[in-house]
Amino acid sequence: MPKIAIVGGSGIYNPEGFELISEEFPDTPYGKPSDPITVGRISGVEVAFLFRHGKSHQHPPSSVPYRANMYALRKLGCECVISACAVGSLQEGFRPGDLVIADQFIDFTKCREYTYFTDRTVHISMPDPCCPYLSRVFAETAEGLGMPYHLGGTYVCIEGPRFSTRAESAMFRRFGDIVGMTMVPECQLARELGMCYCSLATVTDYDCWKGEDVTIEAVMRTMAECLDRVLRLLEAGLPAIGAKDCRCAESAEGCGATAAGDV
Ligand SMILES: [Zn+2]
Question: How many whole angstroms from 125 Cα to the centroid of ligand 1?
Answer without folding.
Answer: 13
